[in-house]
Amino acid sequence: MSGNGLSYSEQGGEAAPELAQEAAASTTPSASAAFGLFSSGTKKNEDLKQMLESSKDSAKLDAMKRIVGIKKLVYVYLMRYAEEQQDLALLSISTFQRALKDPNQLIRASALRVLSSIRVPIIVPIMMLAIKEASSDLSPYVRKNAAHAIQKLYSLDPEQKDMLIEVIEKLLKDRSTLVAGSVVMAFEEVCPDRIDLIHKNYRKLCNLLVDVEEWGQVVIIHMLTRYARTQFVSPWKGDEVVEEYNENNFYQSDEEQKEKVQKVKNTYTMDPDHRLLLRNTKPLLQSRNAAVVMAVAQLYWHLAPKSEAGIVSKSLVRLLRSNREVQYIVLQNIATMSIQRKGMFEPYLKSFYVRSTDPTMIKTLKLDILTNLANEANISTLLREFQTYVKSQDKQFAAATIEAIGRCATNITEVTDTCLNGLVCLLSNRDEIVVAESVVVIKKLLQTQPANHGEIIKHMAKLLDNITVPVARASILWLIGEYCERVPKIAPDVLRKTAKSFTNEDDLVKLQILNLGAKLYLTNSKQTKLLTQYILNLSKYDQSYDIRDRTRFIRQLIVPNEKSGALSKYAKKIFLAQKPAPLLESPFKDRDHFQLGTLSHTLNSRATGYLELSDWPGVAPDPSVRNVDIAEVAKEWTGIRGKPKKEKPTGKFYSESEEEEGESASTSTSESESGSESEKEDKEETSSDESSGSYSSSEESSNSESDSKESTAKKTSRAAAESDSEDIKVKGISKKRSTSSSSDTDSTSSKESSSDSKSESDSKSDFVSGKSISAISSKKEETTVQDRKAPNKQDVFLLDLDDFCPVTTPMAVPAAALLSPSLTADLEGLSLSSSSVIDVATQVSMPTKTHELLHRMSGKGLAANYHFSRQPGIFGDCMVSVQVTVTNTTDQKIENIHIEEKKLPPGMRMHEFSPIECLEPAGSITVSMGIDFCDSTQTASFQLCTKDDHFNVSIQPPVGELLLPVTMSEKDFKKEQGMLTGMNETSATIAVAPQNSTRLVIIERVVKAANLGVVPSGQDNIHRFAAKTVHSGSLMLVTVELKESSTAQLVINTEKTVIGSILLRELKPVLSQG
Amino acid sequence: MIHSLFLINASGDIFLEKHWKSVVSRSVCDYFFEAQERASEAENVPPVIPTPHHYLLSVYRHKIFFVAVIQSEVPPLFVIEFLHRVVDTFQDYFGVCSEVMIKDNVVVVYEVLEEMLDNGFPLATESNILKELIKPPTILRTVVNTITGSTNVGDQLPTGQLSVVPWRRTGVKYTNNEAYFDVIEEIDAIIDKSGSTITAEIQGVIDACVKLTGMPDLTLSFMNPRLLDDVSFHPCVRFKRWESERILSFIPPDGNFRLLSYHVSAQNLVAIPVYIKHNISFRDSSSLGRFEITVGPKQTMGKTVEGVMVSSQMPKGVLNMTLTPSQGTHVFDPVTKLLSWDVGKINPQKLPSLKGSVSLQAGTSKPDENPTINLQFKIQQLAISGLKVNRLDMYGEKYKPFKGIKYMTKAGKFQVRT
What we know:
The complex is a heterodimer of chains A (about 1050) and B (about 425). Chain A is of the alpha+beta class and about 1050 residues long. In chain A, helix 14 crosses helix 34 (about 685-695) and helix 23 (about 430-450) packs parallel to helix 25 (about 470-480). Chain A starts with 14 loop residues before the first helix and ends with a helix. In chain B, a hairpin with a 2-residue loop joins strand 6 (about 115-120) and strand 7 (about 120). In chain B, about 15% of the residues lie in helices and about 40% in strands. Chain B is globular, with a radius of gyration of 25 Å. Chain B has seven helices and 23 strands. At the A-B interface, helix 1, helix 4, helix 6, helix 8 and helix 10 of A face strand 2, strand 4, helix 2, helix 4 and strand 7 of B.
């Protein structure tokens, strides 16, 4: 290292030697050179000493400036070598001590920084003193450095803990954003268990969070996550009833607390402080710092109600654009999340598609996530994608893909057979790793699905001749042995073959041959007795002791002789016991007990210093501890609470007050709502209504911010005198801010905050009502899921894994062979149509309404009907697929039915069905065709021709068929709707027939009328549907809002206003008619 | 938090170490070397490596491993993000971040590292503050320093750390006041064999170079802000203002910075500006294969596609390739099996193509999969998403600045499967 030829020539001065030593860590330092700076060093610095000691401030400042310059170098030196050269280091202390009293804050700060970095135990008392002093320094920058110094001192001398905690406590009260991050860091390092220190500062920290520097944000968010898990009740329980005994415990306690318990009992209402934390961390999802985004994501994951955690997914997906290391960590966390809550990342499925340039570790993580996200709806697209991966040049990754296919197959029963067939194809792959992995996975699959898979086993038995990979051979032999009763003819033959090659096999295979022999001996001893004995004899003299050992064991167990004990009676049971199927699951299955985003989670083992995230408390601890007591309220909050009434406040504070007020207002509304809610839900607890009412008016004891404004005002006036001095200080800071930032911040921030509080109250009410209907909506979801299953099953069969390779495979399920070319195209279309997050959804139900294309009378016995199959893009992106059923009602064959003379309006295109060569009498055939209607309801006219005749026919699409349903979340829906207002909105009020007012009926009717996708709705009375037009892909958003007295508001938002208004017209009768 | 930092070069030498707490022996890096050996490529070295007493978190950039040593639980992204910030700072200071550059400027490197972390906790990571504390080396300053014996340490005390706008230094003065914004969009796409898009999305950034006197307050508004689906901001942007009005309001840092990065809402179909026609086939019997690709423009909104680069990782069995390009130059590296073709501009009248044969290793069977083609291109004066800046206003200062805006579309991770 020392010989690496660093050139210092340009650095001049005496700085270079020390740094060279730092770089070349092996050489011993020449300490005198360093301290030469202060004593008798070069000429240049000789005057420094005098300057420092001079009484003139200006001279001192000059000197200090130069010292700051020199400091950097000395400092580096001191830090590195102080421990080894303690005496020399001590010489410098007095200089720093003096600098601690300097009028310039930066010099004070730097001096403290250097002083605290000198790791010499003797100066601990000096450091302690310096820290104490600095912690009450006027400059926040010095206080920040004091917070840093706390950690340094603690690591030097842990005995000082108690004293340091005092300082931490003091600094935690600091209102400066500069200090917050550093002191929380010190808190985490020194006394992470002293959660009581946080109570009083909790709200302040939440409010400051946005303005803290990014590194501090990460630390604070992690700390607050732990804090919140100890202080608030779980938002996940919903309206689970708290057990009786809790109430008993609280009988002894005072009035307010009893009320609180009852509040918890009724319905879950989020503690306003809990809400405050969630609300204030949300904007940080937009941070450019990946660590901050991840910290917020884990906070939402661990603290937010399940319905809200989804907002983090978009930001996490954004991080995937970042460097490989960031991707690695983020993907790991997503993998854990996606196991528990698939829905969060389902819309972003395509973001996890693997690129050939990704490093292998990223590839496998992505693959794992894709597998976690697989469900009935997307499995066909996923398997198609997996096919590409299987062929990857990265064989390790290809093997992982095979395992992933295996996992999909076990998780989604509909595709098990398809996957199995695909895997069987892979058995003839050239790459041994791929083959081996396939065999292993097939083995596992067959084990989990012990149905009739004799065919596959036979096929694998045939493969045995070609496969050389030992693992694969062993797996096949095991399978045959295990299911030997299913393949009674083949098994003995396999044994015969392997007996021949026994001596040349790998150990692994030999063991399995023995195994197979033993099993066959037990089930079919007539045919295999001799063979088995031959093998046993061979293996008796094998080189491997393992095999010899196994031979002895098996012989004793299966071959009856006088010495064999009681065990041999049970030999069959031992060998052919029902074996539990291996579980194919994600490696991230068990990681969720670690807090997300932590080192421990990444390593899947406890890292030193990992702090366990506690479980939610059954009953929330007294929330009033977070209330800042009166004296302090006056001090800290006068500017906030009192001002709006007195006079126009400074911008910053005004905004905070607005927020507070907004919050208190919303709190009270939500509380009252919860009261009424509970009344509905169980009538026995009518008392709760009153209690929550009195609760909100009860003043000092109440936990919420809503202790009424009058009281604060009173307090304010009382404390006005004391607070003055503090006030001035605060103002001073704020003045500095407002001068440095421009004046317009004031107005904007106030505006912002008001909008903020509004949205807050919105979300709150949403939340409460959302809870109450959760039961209903879940029921509905069930039904939709059931609905969905039917068409999907079809899809799944359509998927051909056949094109893995041309080898013919035994089909376990004949249905899979039903594949027609048009349906392959269908699948192609699936992957084509959606490059967007909002995916085209599989249709909810199939409308059965058929239209007549050609009446048999006018068609001379040829009749044709058509219906819209609602399948996305069979023939291309823009095509609506139409299924035409042609029936022959004559008593002769009709030949060559085809399409001619298309008369299409400009822009429209048609994909005709392939000609029907011959239609038997009374036969009928269904063909599909695609028409691009260009998002208009214009008629597509053409001639339906037979061998001898031409019939003019035309298809006019109902507007509802020009759509493709899309899935989107309620939130996205609202967002999109917000963008499509004004001209793009058409609405009407309609009368709804009473029998149509239930959710299910509405959904059924609307979906029948138009090809719309149902958007899960949080509200009972609002139903949302989304689709996009087939041709242009413009969104079509339909909202049905039920009002009182059986009317409903029907709103359609779309760019395609014409279609929108036609659709509106068409939907009106659908809902109003009985 | 962060205990020590080791810089390791491609040949596995530790060429720089820095400790913020007590000294950690460099033998801790042995665990790293072990992991490096296990991983076939540098890219596959796991970013987090546990050792008995420490944890090694590393990032790999510019062929250098930056290995941070930590002793206890810490959010791994915290460390990784910081290390990246270190690399960015070096790049900012020295232009490039390479072993030679770091060795040449070792004093500045130490000074910068010292300022960035205090006791392992990030202290000053804003490049503006750092540059005030420690001046970046310039040729002139190096000469002056050699003569006068002074150092790069700033003679002014930094005040930025104390202000509420820590990203901007005070007292900035320019004779020419200018503000330039570059809207750069990257298309990430996977195109399948038949030319249809499997997934495509647009990621954009707005990079700014602002040289304005004093404390200007800028607002930037878009014609169509709805396009922006997901955004992340430089800390200077007022988030609330964006939430309510979709306007970017900020006091800019001095010099170059990334104002925001965004993601264009994915439901808008992404226009793919180029297509590749390919015909790559390996025959089972002979040891020769056919290779033919043509690049052509698709939806370019009338702009020329330039800077086109095609690269492809050939299967291991490929021995050599005999190709003739209709334009540009191509290289095939028989060791890494990497084919790259520098196409240059696409002329729609005469589409560039690369044709020829592939010779395979005799005796090996044909590769299962055709290679994927990675594509790079640039289109000037076009933001493919259609994003347009409406106007830029300045408040807080009297002078009239010169404003400029530039659009560019690039290929991000653009892959064509064949």
